[in-house]
Amino acid sequence: MFNLVQGDGPGVGVPLAGHPDVDMISFTGSTRAGIDIARNAAPTVKRVTQELGGKSPNIVLDDEAFAENVGKGVAAMMGNSGQTCSAPSRMLVPAARMDEAIAIARRTASGITVGDPQGDFVMGPVVSGAQFERIQALIRKGIDEGATLVAGGPGRPDGLARGYYVKPTVFARVTNDMTVAREEIFGPVVTILGYDSVDHAVEIANDTEYGLAGYVAGADLEKARAVARRIRAGWVAINDAFDFGCPFGGYKKSGNGREWGEFGFHEYLETKGILG
Fold first, then answer.
1. Using CA atoms, how far apart are residues 47 and 267, in angstroms rounded to an integer?
2. Structural domain boundaries in the chain
3. Per the residue annotation, which of 85, 133, 145, 262 is the catalytic one?
4. Under a CB-based contact definition with an 8 Å cutoff, are residues 84 and 242 in contact?
5. Is the pTM of this model over 0.90?
6. Confidence bin at 28 (pLDDT 50/70/90)
7. Catalytic residue from among 51, 183, 209, 267
8. CA–CA dist 190, 242 (Å, integer)
9. Residue 43 burial by CB count (10 A; 0-12/13-18/19+): exposed, middle or buried?
10. Beta strands per DSSP E along 11-94
11. For the domain 57-238, what is the CATH code?
12. Per the database record, which ranges form the Aldehyde dehydrogenase domain (predicted)?
């Protein structure tokens, strides 16, 4: 049986999380809201699984597929107008190839058309006015903190005077202490960071309070797999691989529990041992 109860977080979410007759809460959303849900659920000691925020690294390896993988990484970030919790928002490239990455990213971003999703456009608006303003503030923060603006920037795209449309935005020469590299923007904004070695790339990738997803792109599959094993995230994709049978969920402030596949069913079960 499936029941749908409509309402907002305070009106519906809080009573459900705290009610003694509710055995489990499964939540997808922001880390901030997830923390509140866990607090409300704690007095009843119910099970809580959460798929929360992310700031997922995308390590592009230094090989013959570099140019293709940079372009794919930028394009992937713009899906759902950047409103994907597992979006590859931190692209890590070899520092020696930063200029090359910038040129590719600029060209890719400039080819992403923005407009009414009923028309022939690649990207539509973001979800609300509040989210639009948050994204704009973070874009301005990136400029103020010294990141190199490669494409996009503040304001709406040309020809769109109204609506919550955001320019496909790329920052480069970003350092991992900048706000745009630390906070989940949840919009079409990708940050490009340079690394000196694979070890350095892994160090940067793991230097985050999140751990929802990670990405590795490279022509050498075994090398890519070795890097993927070192990323502290619950779900790591190599070269755009995707499978709903693979468990999905986060480390650290990206949540707990898993969705998809057999592991997703286990979250909704209680285990009983009968002896004798």
1. 9
2. 9-51+251-266, 57-238
3. 85
4. no
5. yes
6. very high
7. 51
8. 21
9. exposed
10. 24-28, 47-51, 57-60, 90-94
11. 3.40.309.10
12. 2-272
